[in-house]
TrEMBL record:
GO terms for molecular function: glucosamine-1-phosphate N-acetyltransferase activity; magnesium ion binding; UDP-N-acetylglucosamine diphosphorylase activity. It comes from Candidatus Paenalcaligenes intestinipullorum. Its cofactor is Mg(2+). This is Bifunctional protein GlmU. The lineage of its organism: Bacteria, Pseudomonadati, Pseudomonadota, Betaproteobacteria, Burkholderiales. UDP-N-acetyl-alpha-D-glucosamine binds at residues 7-10, 21, 73, 78-79, 103-105, 139, 154, 169, 227, 333, 351, 366, 377. InterPro entries: Bifunctional_GlmU (IPR005882), GlmU-like (IPR050065), GlmU_C_LbH (IPR038009), Hexapep (IPR001451), MobA-like_NTP_Trfase (IPR025877), Nucleotide-diphossugar_trans (IPR029044), Trimer_LpxA-like_sf (IPR011004). Pathway: Nucleotide-sugar biosynthesis; UDP-N-acetyl-alpha-D-glucosamine biosynthesis; UDP-N-acetyl-alpha-D-glucosamine from N-acetyl-alpha-D-glucosamine 1-phosphate: step 1/1; Nucleotide-sugar biosynthesis; UDP-N-acetyl-alpha-D-glucosamine biosynthesis; N-acetyl-alpha-D-glucosamine 1-phosphate from alpha-D-glucosamine 6-phosphate (route II): step 2/2; Bacterial outer membrane biogenesis; LPS lipid A biosynthesis. PANTHER family: BIFUNCTIONAL PROTEIN GLMU (PTHR43584:SF3), NUCLEOTIDYL TRANSFERASE (PTHR43584).
Amino acid sequence: MLNVVILAAGMGKRMQSELPKVLHRIAGKAMLEHVVDNARALNPERIIIVVGHGAEQVQALFADQKDVRFVQQYPPQGTGHAVQQAVPELMGYEPTHTTLVLYGDVPLVQPATLQRLLEARGQGLAILTEKLEQPAGYGRIVRSESGEIVRIVEHKDATEHELTINEVNTGILAAPTPQLRDWLSRLRNDNAQGEYYLTDVVGFAVEDQVPVQAAHPDFAWETLGVNSRIQQAELERAWQSEQARRLLEQGVTLADPSRFDLRGELRCGRDVYIDVGCVFEGQVELEDGVHIGPHCVLNNVKLGAGTVVQAFSHLEGAQTATQAKIGPFARLRPGARLGANAQVGNFVEVKNASFGAESKASHLSYIGDATLGERVNIGAGTITCNYDGANKHQTIIEDDVFIGSDTQLVAPVIVGAGATIGAGTTLTRSAPAAKLTLSRSHQQTVEGWVRPTKKK
């Protein structure tokens, strides 16, 4: 049985923000969300979040998540005091039952590292440690001559000799739940900070002859915490670099891995190319041979094999079949669906509309709430007038229709197969198949007309 306790009560003064520190984002997601998601990968029985500053905002983020419970720490009196608040919620009274302690501002500890920590616990206590070239500010791991961990000393309480130790405590630990309850009850605050340190449980474990083991992260960035905007930005780039590395190892081509941002999940087929400055949000899937041009944004998108998205295009909630062509400067909004070899060109916006195979709108058009058949050509400046001020209406354009430039299709209308709509038409009634339909006033020249001039 596994409990996970996440400490998330800090104010984060150095962030200079009204937002609780743990709600600040890394890769488009609150830091605390990262911690909870990584904890869930371990299949815990219970996740307990210790809140304090901004508790209502933190709780609101997880309001619909039944596996998360909250306890409050007020006033804050140290990490040990924070975990003490979670004791009534802990499940399990057997030595095999485990409590894992994580931190809401240390968002990127990977599930594999946490699993290794749980395995290191065995029948005792396990702590996550790391060796740093510059350990200043961190608690030091004090070992016996035989190499066994005997205690952790905080930086401010360390002796001159202890300050030379470069193995540091990350604060993350896995403990047997019944012993942890006992150790927490024995904490004292007679230290430089006047706080109850969670790290003191290591000394209690040694006193009780409970084995203390250490595990280590795979990457240094996993245990980096965020206390300032600078640290937030540094961790963001470290995480983006890691995500880029993983994609490169899968065979994806990134024009410049340092100019790549993933704020969700990206799945790629073979021979996918991604140019500089692109942002991927939500769930994005790129099939074989997809090419993404520079400075594009893709949010919850699935693109079929061979699709090309040219520069500065914005796609959200869209889907394409194979060999579609999009952009540059195109916008596909939720519900946009492009068939095989369909094209949406520059300054075209598509919303809740489907394009059949080989249909195209090459430039300067808005297609909303519409269904296009195959091989439809949409001329420049065409608009589907889908909104009457209260309700949306559908436009249906059947196969092989040609829509002339500067046409307004006032929905609901149907354009029959093979029809041609003359340029400049305002279509207010359905157009018959295989015929030319147009609406234009007669051109005239007004004799004697004088252009107005500005009054002095």
